Amino acid sequence: MRSPIRPLLLLLPTILSALDLTAAATDDDDTLRTYLVVVCRMNGPKEGGEPLRAWHASLLASVLNSTTDAILYGAGAGGNRGAPVIGGERLVYSYQHVVSGFTARLRPREAAAMARLQWCVDAVPDSTYTLTTTDTPRLLGMSTPRTGAWSVAGNMGDGVIVGVLDNGVDPRHVSFGDEGMRPPPAKWRGKCDFGGAPCNNKLIGGRAKTLEDHGTHTSGTAVGAFVRDVMVEGSNLGTASGMAPRAHLAMYEVCLADMCSATEMLTATERGAFLDGVDVLSISASDNKQKPFYDDLIAVGSFSAVMAGVFFSTSAGNAGPTAETVTNCAPWQLTVGASTMGRRVISKVQLGNGLVINGEASRRYKRVQNKPIVYVGGRFADGALKAVDVRDKIVLCNRVESAAMLEKMVADAGGVGMIAISTQMQFLATTPLGANFMPLSRVSYPDGETIKAYINSTANPMASLRFAGVVLNASALPAIAEYSSRGPCDLPNIGVLKPDITGPGAKSGTSMSAPHLAGIAAVIKKAHPEWSPAVIKSAMMTTADVTHRDGTPVIDLSTGAPASYFAMGAGLVNPTKALDPGLVYDLTADDLVPYICGLGYNDSFVNDMIAQPLKNVTCAKSKKIQGKDLNYPSFLVTLTAAAPVATARRTATNIGKQPLEVYRAEVVAPPGVAVEVVPNRLEFGGAALQRREFTVKFTRGRNAAVNGAAEGSLRWVSGKHSVRSPLAVLLKP
């Protein structure tokens, strides 16, 4: 793939080459694959609709030695053309908003030929993203009478349309009942395409062909209606709902099982944000690696959507606790990490000596009674299962990244159950459990050591596994899940702290944290319809909690220590506080263009890949800024021995309702780093939406770490508001 870092007509060295990607395919490879074809906008029609679609068809026809009519209306259409065949064999979709181009089914040699043409900016092969898969309104304080977000906002997302991109939905699920729901607003222009299943005032439309638990779960998490007497694995958990139970749902199927097509997500983004009229979009998918923005179609599509006023919530990923694994790093997206919640699915382990240990499972299973137990350690990938006879036995093993894969290995080898041990000394692992090929229990490290000691104490160790139902612990304190992907973003010059924030996710991963924040955004959007997506995001981040109500810090379950910003972002979302943040950091296209140009991207990427609302941008003439100077609610700077000082700039906008409000800076400096805020006093009064600029200077001290990270905070404090920003410093030699 040709990198948009290079100018369109200059043969400069590239990071990736379209010719390189297609060179591996032989000339006689007739396999049709999906490509996003990005075209140079300046040569196309000024208007959209049919003229633009016809132009795209003509470009495709010129490469395929066909005709425009044949591409649009099918071969042999003649004079009786009928309706355009969009979604046909070759021209899959013609974009008008999120990118300048179209999706087409091409043979590799055709894509390579197209990539050489001057009108073609890039021919990007489709890629896949992975899905990162009741009681949370209470957990987040939304349902608290009088003081909760629903009461303070005076709404539950009424009239707001939330679009969910996932792997399908069960339209007849009880969470999508429309009792008490009003019809969708007049701006809704979408269709109901669920294979004949009806829509209603809750599930108002979208497109899905399959009934999938994952998409049903994410949709219900965001906007599910009130459901009484909810039964989860045999336990009655009372009444449950989504974050915005009065919001409308539009579901777009973009995934098959847990694999999601990048071009399908791009298409659904255009449909939802620009054609159908959604207000919020939630995507619970992430790549298995960090990508530059020009190679990340979620970033490409979401830019235009956010600039058009659509809030965009994405998942951080499930590759934690390893550092630099966070994905969805674009600063215009909200990137959400995952915390635990006060719900445990209990799976009891009873040893032959009578000792009972409480572990966790993901769902109900049939009891395994009095079977031999064997420990295989963590060497299963090196053939341990072949070296140890596990037939008709319960297998004890160490924690792994892919529980589902290990379960299948154990099942294939004849095992009847599995016990997985957390890697940490004091905390229960929260890695999403596997696909339940067999009975399973995940136990803490100390309990795992106890089980191993029992196995070593007897010649015939035995054990039983029993599912014991679901337990809600209302007093449990949320903590950062072990699996939630960690920052920082390992991409050149990104310069923003990710993840942005944390929401409830365990046990289903960051897949569920993203729709939690999407639903909360719907409630805020209803309360403040004039707020831009960046303002809503800033309100969430600057009011997030890094301590619990009892003053104790939020814990990282992978270490047992207070969570870092690279694990939790700004902290745990606090929906009620987010409704009245006082000050916000807004971001517009005027802020983002200098940032994108500063990354080294050229004019063709800015104008053609992230098409709206930018027109004819010339990066050579545009102001350029570094990531540290982007008007972001958090701070991330890098200090080295050669460059021990960095200054970041910000502009705060007052959206408080006080006639006069004075804020003073309160700084907790990162260890080994001096911090100076100028000015350290901001006064607002009189005119609405007043703006005040300030700088934050970071100076590396002699006692700073040679290589690592240091963290602190900046609070702007008035008599009514406390506006908190994380200060993260990367210290390098």
From TrEMBL:
InterPro entries: Peptidase_S8/S53_dom, Peptidase_S8/S53_dom_sf, Peptidase_S8_subtilisin-rel, Peptidases_S8_3, S8pro/Inhibitor_I9, S8pro/Inhibitor_I9_sf, SBT, Subtilisin-like_FN3. GO terms for molecular function: serine-type endopeptidase activity. Pfam families: fn3_6, Inhibitor_I9, Peptidase_S8. The lineage of its organism: Eukaryota, Viridiplantae, Streptophyta, Embryophyta, Tracheophyta. Residues 629-729 form the Subtilisin-like protease fibronectin type-III domain. It comes from Oryza barthii. GO terms for biological process: proteolysis. Belongs to the peptidase S8 family. Coiled coil: none annotated. Residues 53-131 form the Inhibitor I9 domain. This is Subtilisin-like protease. The keyword Isomerase does not apply. Keywords: Hydrolase, Protease, Serine protease, Signal. Residues 1-24 form the signal peptide. PROSITE patterns: SUBTILASE (PS51892). Residues 157-549 form the Peptidase S8/S53 domain. The active site is at 166 (charge relay system), 214 (charge relay system), 511 (charge relay system).
